[in-house]
Structures are given as structure tokens and as C-alpha cells.
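The record is kept unedited without comment:

——
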Amino acid sequence: TGEQLDFRAYSVPFNFYIVDAEKFELSYEVDSRTYKFDGHFGDTLTTSLGVIAVSRRDNFVPLHFNDETFSKRNYRVRFNTMSRNQNRYLSRLSVGLARPQSTILQVYLEDEVPAKALDFVNMLIEVYLADDVAQKNKASAITRSFLDDQLADITRDLESIEVNRERYKVTRGIIDLESEAQMVLESIREFDEKRAMNNARVAMINQLEAYVTENSDLRDLAPSALDITDPLLIRLINKLSELQGQRQITLNTGTANDPMLTPLNAEIELTRASLLENIRNSRKGLLRKDEELNEEIRNLNSRMQRIPTTERELLEIERRRRIQEGLYTFLLQKRAELSISLAAAESDTRLVDSARLHPAPVSPTASPCCSDCSSRRERYF
């Protein structure tokens, strides 16, 4: 492997000779001058073209190279840049439908080295499937991060409230609330929980609006995890996510000037505007509900004024504790749902068959201007 290479190393072939299971010889030619190096496997060689590390692979068989009659000891090595390797494989790779109207794709690769081509195609599919799952999990992971932040804040509030509650009971000598105060507490608890849930939904709607406004990719967002139940809102989110996916595919297979992008971008902006309008309407509905709940709570607060001061102060502490507990349980449930979706995530794509060798070579073929070709290519699919 090339640890640190000079740019010239990518255009110079290296001759590699394995002396035995422990030693090797490395040579190359630059500007009509030959450079030779003797080394042991595991050594790092400092050459005029850079630093090169030489190590044995797992399938290296020492017994073969310690046998003097074994002949396969000479190798020619070339270093390639990442972009050169990408371009090389892209030029030889082709993907097409197995049959017209089929949902099955066939992947073809032509290469001179059968084992390398088979490994490449199998790894390409493996990475593609893993990336598909990673993209699905990314949406849940982003939402989970938001829930984790909320849970951390609520946990700190609960700990503080619990300490104040116990301290108040000790200093005032109160064991529990009287029946009248308990009844008021239960009534307020119901409306407080509703208001807390409503406020949590407002926060989630605000998060969604920020994502859409900042032109973020909505494939990174999970509506169910944000407790979004409005059918129209969900439909618009899914539509915008689908359009953004189509746009990304078009960019990956074409250029930024692709004429197909113009109508696609226009539809994305139209859908985004409709989604933002729907988000604002949803928030207005949630805020109206918040006002109704606040009115009910104000009525109950007036009843609290008739309760003795000591009990009323304890009731207020109990009330804050129960609000936070309810909100904590709600967010914890949402995070558990996300964890299940992360564990169960799988790709929508299925591997029908692993890569296999074409029964006959597909190259070389004779041509009018050259009937003698030095390379032999095999096809894998």
C-alpha cells in the first residue's frame, strides 16, 4: 500500500518479486534509472516516489513461496487514485432491466481479473443495501436526537422539582394533601397533561417548519415520530420527500443543467409552499386548543385560591411534578417507537442472485484495424 506517494508513482509500474515467505524485491524505473529495494514483509520502504508499506494478505500461502519450484513469484503493481478507480469501474459497469417492465435490475461488469470483478459486484450491492438502510435510519436518528434533548431537559426539571417537594414537606410538616386539594390537583392534572402534550406538538410542528424553511431534505424526517397525524400534512411531507428523492437521482445520473430539473424544481417549490401553509394552519389549530385549555386551567386556579396557603403551595409543586412526568412518559414512548423502527429497518431492495461468471469471454473480438488484442475480459452479473 502507498502510505505517502509522489504524484509520479501513479504513472510508474512497480516490479514485485517474492523471494520467499519472508522476503521480497521491489524495483521501478524513473527517467531511465532503475531503483531496487530488498525488504521483509511488514517493512515500510522509503523510496524516491514515496513511502510504501508491504504486507501479506490472509490468503498468502508461505509453503508455496518457500518451495523453490514454485514459479508464480513475479508481479507488476500499479497505484491508482480514487478518482481513477471510480472512472475505471464506472466505464465498465452497466445496469439494466432484466426484462421490459420488470422491477429486477441486472448489474454487469467487464474485467480482466475474474475474482476481482466478482468481489466488486458483490460488494457494490452490499454497500448499496447498507446505504439504503442507513438512509432510512438517518431520519429516525435525527428525530431521536431531538427527543433525547427534550428528555434530558425534563429529567433535570423533575430532579429539581422532587428535591423542592421533599424539602417543602419536611420544613412545613406536611405528609399529604387534604381531600379538597387532592380533588383540585386531579382536575388540574388532566388539563395540564393535555396542555403539555399540545405544547409538545407545537414544538414538533415548529421543528418541521424549520426543516422545510431551511430547504432541508425531508427524507431525514419521520412524521410519525413527530406525532404528526394530520392526513394532508403527512401526504405533503411524503410527496415533497419523494420529489426531493427524484431530484437527487436526476443529479446523480446527469448534471445540474439537466432540463428535467426545471419542472421538478418548480413542483418541489410548489409542494414546499403548500406544506408550509398547512404547517401554519396546523399550528394555529394547536394554539387555539392551547387557549381553550388555559381557560379551563384558569377556572381551576380560582378554586385553588380557597385552599389554605400551605396546601396550595404544595399543590403547585405536585402539579409541576405531574406535568413533567406526563410529558416525560410521552416523549419516552416516542423514543421507544423510534428505537423499534431503527432495529427493524431493512432495505426495500432485495438481492435476487449473487454475482456469477459469464460462461464465455466477451472480449477480445477481432476488428478491421486490429485483430490482435492483448487483454481478455470476462463479464459478471
